[in-house]
């Protein structure tokens, strides 16, 4: 299929909506994730696996936010830039790899967060009877998942593997596939080659190699998504059993908070990341099976679907802006430390008791509820993340 003989005919969605939202994403995600990272690294003294994972997630979101001004410019002026333009080359060679690397690092880290919370709750709280997972999985599995040192090794491995897998393919895409429109359109004419616009069908649809590599990436996402879903469903069932087996009212409230937090996190994942990964294989199949060659100077038959793909990619990137809000709403310690750092937290009687670490606040309430519920309360303060 000759993608270069037609244009994408962008509408207001591409020329105005996408640049505007990417700009707002930059203005919210950059300060939000910078503040979150500072709070996790400097203001919360207790080092737990959850905080290790969320620190790396904040770093990933911070890098993702730095790509958004370039993406906003690309959609606004992609039809003005030529492929020889410096900004176009930055988007193709630099922004594209960083964007995809951080999307998949985020979902993989969130999967490990789910597994660590699953291990802590299942191993340490038994409700009326131990979970069947205790007998099916080795004890070393649960022990490692609840150690901060293991979480650090996991995060560095995720970064290395993701970068090592995605960078070569995106480099091949930007050097070979995205520039194939130059040779097909110019026909050897150097001046015509310089006139090829940056926002063109070949760039947006890609070639067979990048399309083939998208299949394992989509598979990785759905494997991670199913693991997160199964982990949280198991935790929800276990928490319900624990809530029915205890007579302490405070414990009922804390367990209910855990359930609410799990639902909120799952909704964020489903709303932001799932639509793009459902539509992407459909889009690739449409591009592969369409045989009709578009007429010269006409709108490309996949132009509308390209815009839809880009809007769903924006939705996936929006998670970089919503994560700090999620931390603030769900984690009382993170919220208190953030307000204190911003100078918005007025001193109140007994307010110093709220400034303790997560471990300290858990220990105070654990003294009222007994040792059997200590792990459950720890999870409620860490919001089952």
UniProtKB/TrEMBL annotation:
Highest taxon of the lineage: Eukaryota
DNA-binding among keywords: no
GO cellular component terms, A-Z: membrane
GO molecular function: G protein-coupled receptor activity
Signal peptide start-end: none
Gene3D superfamilies associated with the record: Rhodopsin 7-helix transmembrane proteins (1.20.1070.10)
Pfam families, alphabetized: 7tm_1 (PF00001)
TM regions (residue ranges): 20-41, 62-81, 101-122, 154-175, 211-235, 258-279
Primary localization: membrane
UniProtKB keywords: Membrane, Receptor, Transmembrane, Transmembrane helix
Places the protein is found: Membrane
Residue ranges of every copy of the G-protein coupled receptors family 1 profile domain listed in the record: 32-327
Official protein name in the record: G protein-coupled receptor 82
Species in which this protein is naturally found: Lates calcarifer (Barramundi)
